[in-house]
Amino acid sequence: MNTPHRRTRGFTLVELLVVIVIIAMLMGLLTPAIISARAKSRVVQCTNNQKNLGAAVLQYEMNKQQFPGYVNRVPGPLPAGGSWPVMILQQIDRADLWDAWRSGTAQQVKVDLFACPAKAATDPAPLSYVANCGQQDNGIGDAANKKPPDWSANGVFHNRYPFDSSGKNNGMIVVTVSMSDIKDGTAHTLLISENNQAASWCATYAGPTATSNLQEPNWGMVWWQHPKDVEKKVLDINEDYDGEGVATDFTDPYSAYDHARPSSYHTGGVVATFCDGHVQFLNEKMDYNVYALLMTPDGSKAKSTLTGKPPVSGSPAAQNKKLDESMLE
Q1: What distance in Å separates the CA atoms of residue 124 and residue 126, rounded to the nearest whole number?
Q2: What is the mean pLDDT of residues 292-306?
Q3: What are the φ/ψ torsions at residue 30 (nearest 5 degrees)?
Q4: Cα-based torsion angle of the residue sequence 153, 159, 164, 167 in order, rounded to the nearest 10 degrees
Q5: Which pLDDT value is given to residue 36?
Q6: Containing H/E element for 274?
Q7: What is the DSSP string of 155-199?
Q8: Higher-confidence residue: 322 or 151?
Q9: Of 197, 242, 213, whose CA–CA distance to 79 is shortest?
């Protein structure tokens, strides 16, 4: 007896197209959520990095009674200065790298805490974070007239390497800043933030006469005295001259100092740490006046690195007005 063959019914073309459309719609709904979740995860990781870095810097200040400089004399035979991240290696449990620096065998090594996960690492020793360096240094200052490269009231991290490229003391006045110098409140004074143009954390500094080692804009952020319509170098958070928003390199025809401001690959702003250790997301649309006020540890004494005079009325650092905390939102 022959068993009748049962034909298996397959999908029709219409049914297959319906299934494909449904899958595509689901993917369209899920993809933005996945991207958003990943972006939030990177912000969280960046926040955690900065919490640890901020704690390390504050521990350093507590032990030494002063903040590290953006560049420092590292004890040992290496005839060059080290960055502020080098100075906190012991505080982040990387005594092995600190010992290598002190022995004169600095290593190009990636340290996870120094790199924001939102920034692609192209350097063997990447750095995503910069320190509050006040205004742009005026060379090595003028020791004869008691003028340092920058004033302590303008920022937290200063040049602490008073040597030229030959290792000879250049007579520069070394500025020291401690917690007691932050008169405007530690919760209202920036410590560190992100910067897409930050250089290698373990690059060396051979003194201001070696122009290839101009490290303040590579390891720090600064504020400018003049309003934007007077001083073209003023850049807001995440702003760039090329009109593309977040800057990724130095291809535009401006100096490194023009990029010495907070910037990140996070949408809408940057993660920043304050001198009391708290971490906060700063909106990229923050008024530049507010940013300048947050940079100065003692706004009543802030003054130009060029003229030695207080900022002119109406400029970003005109300190006759107090910081309105609602402006941070």
Answers
A1: 6
A2: 87
A3: -80, -35
A4: 130
A5: 63
A6: strand 269-274
A7: -S--EE--B-TTS-B--PPPP---GGG-TT-GGGSEEEEE-TT--
A8: 151
A9: 213
Of 222, 196, 156, nearest to 46 (Cα)? 196
**Structure token digits, residue 56:** 């390390």
Phi, psi of 293 (to 5 degrees): -65, -35
Which residue's structure tokens are 């790298």? 97
pLDDT more than 90, % of the chain = 37
Beta-carbon count within 10 A of 36 CB: 11
**What angle (nearest 5°) sits at the alpha carbon of residue 49, between those of residues 45 and 55?**
145
Please state, in angstroms and rounded to a whole number, the distance separating the CA atoms of residues 303 and 297. 12
Q: Which is higher by pLDDT, 302 or 60?
A: 60
Question: Please, which residues have CB within 8 angstroms of residue 13's CB and are 6 or more apart in sequence?
Answer: none
Tokens linked to 124: 């063997």
- Assess whether pLDDT exceeds 50 at residue 7: yes
71: enclosing H helix or E strand: strand 71-73
Tokens of 248: 């990724």
Q: Tell the residue number behind the tokens 């405007």, with chain if given.
A: 184
Strand partners, 73: 81
pLDDT tens by residue, 77-124: 666 688 999 999 999 999 999 998 888 787 788 999 999 988 766 778
111 and 94 in contact (C-beta within 8 Å)?
A: yes
